[in-house]
What does this fold into?
Amino acid sequence: MANRIEVLARQLTLAGPGESQGAGQEVLVGLCPRKLEAYLTHDNADLRARIFEFLKDPLYTPNDYLSLMEFRELTLQRLKRFLDQRFFSIRDYLSDPRRFQAALESLSFCDYSLAIKCGVHMTLCGGTICKLGTKKHHDAYLPGIDSLDLPGCFGMTELGHGSNVMGIETTAHYDAASGEFIINTPSNEASKIWIGGSGQHGKVCTVFAQLTVGGRWEGPHVFVVRLRDDAGRIMPGVRIKDMGPKMGLNGVDNGQIWFDNVRVSRDALLDAFASVDASGAYSSPIRSVAQRFGTMVGGLTTGRMLIAQGAVDAMKIGLTIALRYSAARPQFGDKLILDYLTHQRRLLPGLASTFALHLAMKRLKDLVAAGRPSDAKTIHIFSSGIKAAATWTRVEVLQHCREACGGMGFLSSNRIGNMLNDTNVDVTFEGDNTVLMQSVARSLLEDTAAVRAAAAAAAAPKRFDLAASGGAPASDPATLLALLRAREERLIAGAAAAAAGAAGGKKEAALDDQQDRIVELGWAYTERMCLQNMLAEAARASAADEATGRALRTLAALYGASRAERAAAPLLASGAICGAGAEALRGAVNAACRALGGGGARAPALVLCEAFGIPDHLLRAPIAFNWRDIGRE
It folds into this structure.
């Protein structure tokens, strides 16, 4: 039996074509984790450090034995104490958005229920009032948002309308005689649902409703509606049903809301972009209902960015725990789990994706902060793609982390299982991922110049000889970027041709028939952009510190090779690569995994995780420290 195990171990670790077992720590020679951490930390490093230090407060110590109601109450207490520290203000949403986001992002490392409870209150409710309201709204509501005297909710989603926000059914009719709006839920399908914070605690809600003034429909507008009075009693005409336990995120009290002809003052309308005067005259500087609606939901970009960053941060936590454990845990003699190629394959492409997505978020934040009107479309496309890619990747990475830790990954105290459940909601809120990827693709197809360029490139397809020179091209980031760009161009050209070939008004039907490829195009664009940005970041980092730039370039090579390997089937079908090229991609991924995963406690992958800057009191998982002490008195 012992001989069989030894043979099996040798087979599991045998290098294949194009692979190397000797790279070891050479890929990160001279790398200082603190310098890489400083580069990754986009902004507000001091603020983040102060918040991390504050989260040592015993109130934030995990307790997996609480009941549903106890956990919700604890989450509210945690949020109150956090906001009392005045690390940031709701007014930073407009005046200092980087500070605002940095404060919220920091909470994801502590508890996701707390992060989402805070995000709904500050970003979705408070941010909507900031962006769509005017001074009278800011003066009336923002102090209570900052202090949590007015716990806030965001009332967009309805039972019958999730992604189709333009089709919501909640109504708002203006009564000129009384100078009031009448908010009503005309059917059960129109009830607001999944409204975070409304089940128990919410006192104020930003409600999306179809506005009618003087018999004329003006499209969805947003109103501030009281749900509960100062004593916590539900307001007349409002009915709220607590949605109860969920598969995760149980510190957030989601609810379903109905409005029975609730009257609110004329000032309840958030009127930065549309107003109704005392006589009942409606006015807006934006004449088109569609454009006005687009402006009103434009603030959702901040929410998507926070959700995407939260997913990336969850991957950082999960990977740090799983890699620390596997670099210290032997199996079959003295061989460490992380020394097995199968284990490296589970974790290290995900590590590269985490860096790629983090750097993509870094770029997106810069675009948003710059505030250039010319970047608006890029921000919309990129934020949609990044949110979908980050959260879908998070599902896969955390599942691999959980499996890579065996039974220990199933234990709540080791965090990975809890994070899997708590973050699972992120693939469908702040935009369903499949819908977002279709939105990305459709936006690309609206760019006539890009479609023409893609069609020209697809008409003269390039073949990539990845197997040449011992497989080196398969690990060359520039080659991989060109390959991913060719994949994207073929998908654009194919979808555009299908739409152009449709007779009459059947373009939408033709695109519907291409939905699988439309989603694939969204992925192709996002992955190409991530790799392109990663290489640009590596070049910028190299200017200040060569070792930091080299580390990012190494990760870019693994990211590009693993993305191309996953897309091998369509790349083979299109003739972009041959069978030997697909094998070269496999070899490149394996070689990169070997280089980053070997060395036990000195494995380069652990150095890279150190650059995430997660303090031990927030990492917390026993297996991330000395697993041999688990259960010891």
Observations:
- Residues 341-370 form the longest helix (30 residues).
